[in-house]
Design goal:
The protein is mainly alpha-helical and 64 residues long. It has one helix at residues 36-47. Helices cover 19% and strands 0% of the residues.
Length: 64
């Protein structure tokens, strides 16, 4: 239920509980957990250094 299709009183194993059926079309399975599609977008932004100021390439943090 609202907001975010989440109800803290209902667990994933309760009768009648529903999650989205196609994780490729949605950001969240159940209002709390990201789908693979959402994780791919976040990972792409991090790896492209779009979340850092100044923009620092991700490889910068992997230098030994």
């Amino acid at each position: 239920g609202p907001p975010y299709n989440y109800n803290a009183n209902v667990s994933c194993l309760d009768p009648g509980y529903r999650v989205c059926e196609d994780g490729g079309k949605f950001v969240s399975w159940d209002g709390v957990h990201y789908t693979d599609a959402a994780n791919a977008v976040v990972a792409a932004k991090i790896l492209a250094a779009e979340f850092s100021t100044p923009n620092v390439p991700f490889g910068y943090f992997c230098k030994t």
